[in-house]
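step 4 of 6: structure.
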Amino acid sequence: MEMTLFLIVPVASILALSFAYYFYRNMLKQDEGTPEMRKIAKHVRDGANAYLKQQYKVVGWVFLTLCILFAWMAYGPGLQNKWVWFAFLTGGFFSGLAGFIGMRTATMASARTANAARDSLNLGLKIAFRSGAVMGLVVVGLGLLDISVWFVVLQYAFDSLQEGEKMIVLTTTMLTFGMGASTQALFARVGGGIFTKAADVGADLVGKVEAGIPEDDPRNPATIADNVGDNVGDVAGMGADLYESYCGSILATAALGASAFHFSAEAQLNAVMAPMLIAAVGIVLSILGIFLVRTDENATQNQLLKSLGKGINFSSVFIAIFSFGIIYMLGMDLWIGGSIVTGLIVGLIIGKSTEFYTSQAFRPTQKIAESAETGPATVVISGIGTGMISTAIPVLSIVVGIILSYLFAAQFDFSNVGVGLYGIGIAAVGMLSTLGITLATDAYGPIADNAGGNAEMSGLGEEVRVRTDALDSLGNTTAATGKGFAIGSAALTGLALLASYIEELKVGLLRLGNETLNVGGESIPLHKASFVDFMHYYEVNLMNPKVLVGLFIGSMMAFLFCGLTMNAVGRAAQKMVAEVRRQFKTYKGILKGEEEPDYSRCVEISTKGAQLEMILPSIIAIVIPIIVGLILGVAGVMGLLVGGLSSGFVLAVFMANAGGAWDNAKKYVEEGNLGGKGSDVHKATVIGDTVGDPFKDTSGPSLNILIKLMSMVSIVMAGVTVAFHLL
Amino acid sequence: MEMTLFLIVPVASILALSFAYYFYRNMLKQDEGTPEMRKIAKHVRDGANAYLKQQYKVVGWVFLTLCILFAWMAYGPGLQNKWVWFAFLTGGFFSGLAGFIGMRTATMASARTANAARDSLNLGLKIAFRSGAVMGLVVVGLGLLDISVWFVVLQYAFDSLQEGEKMIVLTTTMLTFGMGASTQALFARVGGGIFTKAADVGADLVGKVEAGIPEDDPRNPATIADNVGDNVGDVAGMGADLYESYCGSILATAALGASAFHFSAEAQLNAVMAPMLIAAVGIVLSILGIFLVRTDENATQNQLLKSLGKGINFSSVFIAIFSFGIIYMLGMDLWIGGSIVTGLIVGLIIGKSTEFYTSQAFRPTQKIAESAETGPATVVISGIGTGMISTAIPVLSIVVGIILSYLFAAQFDFSNVGVGLYGIGIAAVGMLSTLGITLATDAYGPIADNAGGNAEMSGLGEEVRVRTDALDSLGNTTAATGKGFAIGSAALTGLALLASYIEELKVGLLRLGNETLNVGGESIPLHKASFVDFMHYYEVNLMNPKVLVGLFIGSMMAFLFCGLTMNAVGRAAQKMVAEVRRQFKTYKGILKGEEEPDYSRCVEISTKGAQLEMILPSIIAIVIPIIVGLILGVAGVMGLLVGGLSSGFVLAVFMANAGGAWDNAKKYVEEGNLGGKGSDVHKATVIGDTVGDPFKDTSGPSLNILIKLMSMVSIVMAGVTVAFHLL
C-alpha cells in the first residue's frame, strides 16, 4: 500500500517537467519581434550564458574540492558513508540545472513578451507568466524527481541495515544532497546578486543621475549588463535558491519523521513519505492553478493581480484539504494536517506584511517617500527605521507558527519533542507546497522587467512600454510575496535542519562504534535516545559558555556575510561606474545616439567583479561551521546554527523590506507624487533605491541560503565533530 | 578581617566624590570669557536644564507606576521582598543624579575651555579633561557609594536568614537597584539621543547643506539646540548609561559569587566582595591616572593622545597587578586574577578595533570616503558594509574573552559552571574597573565639542577655533575607545545578568515554598541545585521550541528597538528642518547676520520631539520581557535574553562603527582629501554622516542598555514567572 502511494511522487514530478516542457515549446513558437528586438534579446542571452559558464567553472572547483574531502572522509577514516560525496554532487548539479533552465526560458521569453505586448496586455501577461511557470515547475519537478530516485536507490543500497536504523541512515544521507543544492545556490545567489546589482547601481548612478537619461536607455553602456543581471540574479539565482529550499524542507522533515516514528517500521515509512506526498499533491494543484490565471482583454492591473491571486488561492485551499486526505490515508494523526495549514497561513501572513511595508499603496512606503523632502539622508534613515520595524510581524507569525505546528503534531504536549519538531518541518513543507505556482508568479517579474527593457531599447512605441510597465509593476508586488515565502520557509527549514543535525550525530556516533549515550549517570541505548537526551549529553543549554559563544558567532556571521556582499556590490559597481563614465567621455557620439556603446565590455566587468567577489563570503559560509565544530564541538555548532538562524532571519527580513520599500518609494514619486520625476524629492528617492538594491537583491536573499547552508555543512561534518573537537 | 577590607569600598567612593568636587571647584574658578561667550553658554545651560526637567517628569511617572507594581507584588501576593521597590527607586535616582552632575559640569566647562584655549592648547585640554573627570569620578563614586550603603543596610535587614541563603537573597535584592539604574539610563539615552540627533541632523541638513553656512554658525537657529543635545545626549545620557553598566556588572558578579561559593560562609562573603574591591582599587588608580595626564605647552595632537593614553595605561597595568593582590588577600584562587586581566585586554582590543574601523587614519574609513566619488548612495552602501564587517573582531574578542575568563575561574574545567560564570562577571568588572579615567576621556569629548561651538558662535579668532578643533578631534578618537568599553562590558554584564536570573529563580521558588527541584526523577534540594540542574528542570535547551521562539523574539527586539529610535530621530529631525527653514524664510535678516534667530524655539521642538518619541521604545523594552515571561515561562525568557544579547551586541557594534566611520570619512574629506570642503565628494560624505548620526548616538548606544534592561526586568519579575506562565 505505502509504496503504491509513493508512486504519486515520481509521477507528479514527471507531470511537472512535462508541463514545463509544454509551456516552453509554446513560448518558443511565439514571434520574437523585429530584428532590433531579436538582436537585443540575443545580446542579453549571450551575456547571461557567458556569465553562467564562468560561474559554473568557479563552482566546479569548489565542488571538486569538497567531493574529494567527502570521499576521503568516507574511504579514509570512515567518518561518512560512501554515498555522501555523490549525493552532494547530484544536489549541486540539479540545483544548477533548475536555475539554468529557468534562465534560458527567461532570456528566450523577454522579447516574445514585449512583442506580444504590442498586440495586447493579456497576451503579454500570458507569455510572461507561462514562461515563469516553466521555472516554477522545473524547480519542483527536478526536486521531487531527484528525491524519488535517491529514495529508491538508497532503499536498495542500505538494505542490509536494520529496519528502524535503515530509514534514519537513508534520510540523513539524502540530506547531503541538500548540501550540494545549498552550495550551488549560495554561489548562484551571491554571484548573481553581485552581478545584477553592480550593473544596476552602475547603470543608474551614471545614466539616470549623472547623464539624466531614462532607465533601459540604449545609450547607456551598462543597460545590457543590467538586463543580463536580472536573468542571472533574479532568475538563475532564485531558481537555485528555491530548489534548495524545496528539497531541504522535504528532506529535513523526512529525516525528522524517520527519527520521531522509529518505534514502528510502518509508521516510520509513512512519516518519511508524508512530506514527499504533500509536495506531490502541491505540484498537481499548482499546475491546475497555473491554468486558472487568465484575464479579459481589457483587464486593469488590479484584475491582473486578482487573477494571479486566484490561481495561488485555489492551490493553497485545495492543498490544505488534500493534505488532510494524505495524512488520513497514511494513518497518521489528523492534527498533523493542522501543521500544514499553519505553514500555509504563516507564509501568507508574511507575504501580506511584506506587501504592507513595501508597497506604495500603504503608509510606510509613502512616509519614506515623504521623508525625501528633507533630502537623501532622511530617506535612508527612515528606510532603515521602517525596515527594522517591519521585522516584528514576520517574526511574530513565525513564532506563533512554530508553537502551533509543534503543538499540533505533538498532540498538544510540549514534552513530545521528536514529533513536535517533525510538525515544524511539516509546516515548512506546507508553506512551500504551492511553490510551483508561487515561483511562477515570482519568475514572471524579471521576464516582464526584461520585456520592458527590450521594448525601450528597441524603440517600440509608448503604448507598448506602458503595457510592459504594467506587467513589471505587477511583478514587483508578486515578488514581495515570493520573498516572504522564501524567508519564512528558510526559517522553518532551518529549524528542521537543526533537529536533523541531532539525527546525524546519532548516525555519526553509531558509525564510531558507540551504542549508548551516558546521560546523568544512566546509559541510554542510542536508538532510544531522545532529542532531550542529546541536549543533556552535549550540554546544549543556555548556561554552557560554548553554546553562548556559538550564538555570538552565529549572529556575527549573518552580519559579516551581509557586510562582505554589500561591499562586494559597492566595489563592483564602482568599476562599472568608471567604465560607463569612460565610454561617455571617450565616445562623444554615444549620448547623442549616434554611436553604439560597448555593451559587452560592461557585461565582462560585472562578470569578473561577481566572480572575484563571490568567493570570500561563500567560502566563509562553508568554512566557519567546520572550524566551530573542530574547536567547540556539538554545543558550539548548535549555538552557531541557532544564532545564525535567529539573527539571519531578522536581518534578512529587514534588508528585503527596506530595499523593497525604497524601490517603491521611488516609484511612488515617479507616479507623480511629491513633485514627480526629475524633482529633488525624486533624486533623493533614487539614492534610497540604489542603497536598497544590494539590500534586497544581494545580501538579503543570500542570507536565506546562508542560514541553511551552515546547517547543511554541520550536518555533513557531524561525523568529524563527533570524532574530534578541541574544547 | 573581611569587613575591614570592605571599608576600602566606601572610602574609595568618597575619595572619588571628593576629587570630583575638587576638580569641579577648580573649573568654576576659571574665567568664562567675554560677555558673548557667557551668554551663549547660558543659553546652552538653560536649554539643557529645561530638557532634563521635562525628561525627569516623564521618567518620574514611569518610576511611580513601577514602584506601585513592585510594592503590590511584595505586600500583596508576596512575590518579592519588601526592599525591591525602594532599591529600584534609589538606583534610578542615583543614575539620574550622575548624569545630571556630569551635564551641569559640562555646561559650566565649555565656555571656560574655549576661553582657556585663547591662551593655550594645553590649558584648554586641562580644563576640558578635568571637567570630564568630574563625570567619570561621580559615576564610579556614586555607584560604589550606593552599593556599599545597600550592602551594609541589607546585612542587617536580612539578619534573620540562614548564613548561605542570606547572601543570595541580599545580592539578588541589590540587583533590583540595577533595574532602577537601567530604566533611568534607557530613558536618558533614548530621549537624549533623539534630542541631540534631531537637532544635529536638522541643523546640518538646512544649515550646512541647503544654506551653505558652516557648522555651529550663530546664524543657524538649531545651533544652540545642537549644543544642548551634546550635553543631554552625550553627557547626561552616557553618564546614566555607564553608571548602570558599572553597578550592573558589580552587582551581577556579586550575585554569582554568592551562589558559586555558597558552600562556605567565608568564601561566599569574599566572592561577593571581590568585585567591589576590584572596583575600589580601580577608583584610586583612576585618580592617579588622571593626574598623569599633562602635556607640554607646544604639544602636538599625537602627544595629547599619548598623554591621555599614558593615564589609562598606567591605571590598567596597575589594576591588573593590584587585583591579583586582592584575590590573594581574599584567599581566592589566583587564576581568577586571569579573568580580570582578560576583561581588561578584551576591552582594549575592542577599543583598538573600533579605532581601526572608524578613524580616518586607516583604510576602512578612507575607502568609505573614496566611495563618495560615485555619490551618496555608494557612501551609504560602503559604510553599512564596512560597519557589518567590523563586527567580526569585537565578537571574536568577546568570544575568546568569555571562554578564557570562564576557564580561568573554573580552574580549566568546563563543568565547573557556577565559578566559570562568576569568572565572566569578574571579567566585566575588570573591563570597567578603569571607568573613572576612561569615562573622563570620553566625557571630555562633548565638552571640547561645545567649546568649539562656543568659540565659533562668539566669533573668537581662527586660531582659537583651530585649537578647539584639535581638542574636539582628539575627543572623537577617545570616544571610539569609550564606546568599545561600553559595548564590550554590556555583553559581558549581560551574560552575568543572565546567570543571575537563575539565582533570582531560586529565590522565587524558595519564596513560593518550594524546597526541591525535580530533575530527571531526582529531587534536588534547592540550595544545592546547580545552574545545569536549572537548565534541565526548565528545559532551557536548543531543542525546546519555547527557547527557540524566545531567541527569535530577542533578535527581533533589537531590530525593532533600533527601528523605532531611528524613525523617532527621522521624525523629530523633520520637524526641526521645517522650523529652521521657516525661520530663514520668515526672518530674512537671519542669514545676513542682522537678526538673531529664535534659538529657544528649536530647543523646545527637540525637547517635545524627544519626550514624545522616547516613550514607545522604552515601554516596549520593559513590557516585552514581562509578556514573554507570562506566556512562555522561564525557557522563553532565557531565549529572549540570549537572543537580544547576541543580536543586540552585534547590531550595536555595527551601528556604532558605521556611524563613527561615516563621521570621520567626512572629516577626512574636510581635511582636504578627495576635493575637500564644498566638493561633491564632501556633500556625499555629509549625507553619510547624517545617516550615521542616529546610528552611533541614538540607536547603537541605546542597545547597550536594552540588553541589560531586559535582563534586569526579567530578574525583578522572576517571582511572577515562577508563579505563573501560560504555556
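step 5 of 6: annotate
 - The mean pLDDT of chain B is 91.
 - The first helix of chain B runs from residue 2 to 6.
step 6 of 6: archive
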